[in-house]
Design the sequence.
């Protein structure tokens, strides 16, 4: 079977269904995107001390994010160089050194071989410093203000060049912490759907869908508005559900900003009540005062005025800085995707501010979410529909006439444009055709 030619799958205004349904295309994506691009792997607060580790996904591989003796970070493949056993089986932990559970070879934190039982079973040609006998290391690992990214590719643009203007999303999240640091807190929420990974990234800034796909929860929120508003445990959820019911002209008024690397962000649309970007109540007033202690009044006002919803760092990270939430989109198979949500405390902020984050996650990203369940259902319907080959192409031209090229290379458009999808496929094609080393 010949390899698929990505150039035949993407045009300016349409994309071939094979991009979502062909297992050979998926395999090529793993090789040319997920084994090359910078991918988010974790946060520094997950591994505060030397020997701490967390097991994370880097493209198709499971790797161990660890803190070294000199406090630097390393990513090691979870694979013993002897006969291939996984070195650890837990999601996180602490080790003084690595010890393989099969034949007890041991390794230093940085992966170099320390001891081999039955050493007299090896002849003089056995060289413990042979690179083939060390735990393999991921060649590039970098932290941007505590957010750790890695790349399987030894060469290519640096992390800040890759992040481009979307570094501002991570900046804003850190800037919102009165102490200047974030702490990943609690466990994670995981969801899986039977659909291609790109469906999630496309939908995250598709602003025509909310008032259609989420119509039932908008209607329920409107019907029970007074009761939900009166109960502090549901008032935030009420505001979030109501916000999905904007009229189309209002959605068009939410700006989209597309970056050359496939990244995109959208403006905010949570304007009222407890989810308004700036409000006045005892908790928020205390929070703002602690931010002002760090940054001063003027800078604090600038930080809080950054009102964006989803910031998408291509290929597979969604950042919500205001609520301190990250979502990683992990391709599992051409028609299966895992979404992992993590949340962060703004260090130094009142504890009540973290309640907003938890409510946000529960309402938007948990298995019981009325919003996420709608989206996952539509992803699965898209995947099933695309299996029907009667029409091979999908249309992505909406809003092309309103795209505005900016002098810095970015493109802006009204929120109802499909600009973000076209922009993601531009980066996709660049990588898939081998034109980009990112
Ligand atoms: S497989 Fe690890 S020591 Fe044998
Ligand atoms: Fe949605």
Sequence:
């Amino acid at each position: 079977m010949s390899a698929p030619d990505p150039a035949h799958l993407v045009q300016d205004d349409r994309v071939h269904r094979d991009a979502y349904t062909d297992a050979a295309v998926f395999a090529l994506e793993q090789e040319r995107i997920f084994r090359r691009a910078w991918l988010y792997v974790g946060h520094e607060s997950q591994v505060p001390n030397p020997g701490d580790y967390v097991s994370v996904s880097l493209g198709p591989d499971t790797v161990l994010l660890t803190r070294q003796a000199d406090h630097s970070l390393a990513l090691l493949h979870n694979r013993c160089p002897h006969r291939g056993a996984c070195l650890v089986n837990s999601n996180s932990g602490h080790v003084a050194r690595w010890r393989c559970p099969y034949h007890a070879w041991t390794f230093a934190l940085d992966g170099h071989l320390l001891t081999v039982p039955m050493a007299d079973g090896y002849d003089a040609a056995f060289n413990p410093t042979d690179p083939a006998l060390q735990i393999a290391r991921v060649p590039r690992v970098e932290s941007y203000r505590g957010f750790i990214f890695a790349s399987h590719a030894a060469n290519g643009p640096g992390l800040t060049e890759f992040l481009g203007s979307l570094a501002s999303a991570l900046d804003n999240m850190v800037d919102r912490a009165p102490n200047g640091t974030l702490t990943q807190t609690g466990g994670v929420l995981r969801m899986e759907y039977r659909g291609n990974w790109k469906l999630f990234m496309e939908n995250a800034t598709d602003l025509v869908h909310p008032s259609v796909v989420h119509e039932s929860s908008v209607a329920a929120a409107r019907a029970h508005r007074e009761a939900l508003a009166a109960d502090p445990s549901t008032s935030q959820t009420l505001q979030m559900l109501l916000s999905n019911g904007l009229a189309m002209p209002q959605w068009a008024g939410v700006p989209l900003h597309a970056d050359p690397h496939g990244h995109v962000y959208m403006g905010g649309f949570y304007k009222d009540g407890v989810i308004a970007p700036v409000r006045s109540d005892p908790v928020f007033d205390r929070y703002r005062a602690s931010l002002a202690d760090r940054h001063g009044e003027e800078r604090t006002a600038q930080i809080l005025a950054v009102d964006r919803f989803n910031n998408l760092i291509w290929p597979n990270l969604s950042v919500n800085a205001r609520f301190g939430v990250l979502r990683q989109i992990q391709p599992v198979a051409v028609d299966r995707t895992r979404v992992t949500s993590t949340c962060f405390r703004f260090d130094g902020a009142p504890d009540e501010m973290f309640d907003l984050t938890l409510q946000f996650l529960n309402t938007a990203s948990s298995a019981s979410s009325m919003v996420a369940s709608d989206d996952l259902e539509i992803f699965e319907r898209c995947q099933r529909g695309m299996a029907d080959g009667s029409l091979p192409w999908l249309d992505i031209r909406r809003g092309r006439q309103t795209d505005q090229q900016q002098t810095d290379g970015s493109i802006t458009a009204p929120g109802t444009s499909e600009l973000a999808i076209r922009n993601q496929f531009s980066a996709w094609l660049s990588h898939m055709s081998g034109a980009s080393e990112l």
Notes: Residues 40-144 form a domain with the Rieske Iron-sulfur Protein fold (CATH 2.102.10.10). The chain has a mean pLDDT of 96.
